[in-house]
Specification:
By secondary structure, the chain is α/β, with parallel strands linked by helices. It has a single domain, classed as Aconitase, domain 4 (Alpha-Beta Barrel), CATH 3.20.19.10. The chain contains eight helices and seven strands; from the N terminus they run E-H-H-E-H-E-H-E-H-E-E-E-H-H-H. It has a seven-stranded mixed β-sheet with strand order 4-3-2-1-5-6-7. The longest helix has 14 residues, at about 180-195. The chain is globular and about 65 Å long.
Length: about 200
């Protein structure tokens, strides 16, 4: 998993409330277990019309938001089914951070395990950041200092659970956390093989 330190990039405004995981990636694209290629279909029903042509009204089809790394979203982002393909698709598109007032719990956990930082802010701070995003401003998210730096230089502080912060800063998913104990695991397996050769 890629480490998350300081992220500076264009923020795409998505003020719609209750953007669910089916909106992020429709069910017909859940047949794969690969994490790559899903960025092409993220927000599929909003990004494309029935003929497959881009919808010019959708924010990620407009400049400078085509290369957005951050989304400033309406309330309750990531609600709906628990599909892990949703953070896979966002990450494959290049989204590394979503800022909102609230997130669905399962999506919140799945995102962190896939290197996406979800930041909960107050409605007032979200509205200010949404205005910045609507103007095409660049935001800087500093996970180490736990601040979002706005275009005018002001900072919005945010809280994050310490273990989640540690894992994101160090690029550790569940496998990475386990491999930190690789020497102990190898030692245990060696002893088990010697003590129980029939296993």
């Amino acid at each position: 998993m890629e480490k998350f330190g300081v992220l500076t990039g264009t923020a795409a405004p998505m003020p719609l409330k209750n953007i669910d995981t089916d909106m992020i990636i429709p069910a017909q694209f859940l047949k794969t277990i690969k994490r790559t290629g899903l960025g092409e279909v993220v927000f599929f029903r909003m990004r494309f019309d029935e003929s497959g042509a881009e919808n010019p009204d959708f924010i990620l089809n407009q400049e400078p938001f085509r290369d957005a790394k951050i989304i400033v979203a309406g309330d309750n982002f990531g609600c709906g089914s628990s599909r892990e393909h949703a953070p896979w698709a966002l990450a494959d598109f290049g989204i590394r951070c979503v800022i909102s007032t609230s997130f669905a719990d399962i999506f919140f956990n799945n995102s962190a395990k896939n290197g996406i930082l979800l930041i909960v802010v107050s409605p007032e701070d979200r509205d200010a950041l949404m205005k910045d995003a609507q103007q095409g401003a660049t935001l800087t998210v500093d996970l180490e200092k736990q601040v979002i730096r706005r275009a005018d230089g002001t900072e919005v502080a945010f809280d994050i659970e310490p273990n989640r912060r540690h894992n994101l800063l160090n690029g550790l998913d569940d496998i990475g956390l386990t491999l930190q104990h690789e020497a102990d695991i190898t030692d245990y397996e060696t002893r088990l093989g010697a003590d129980c050769p029939w296993l």
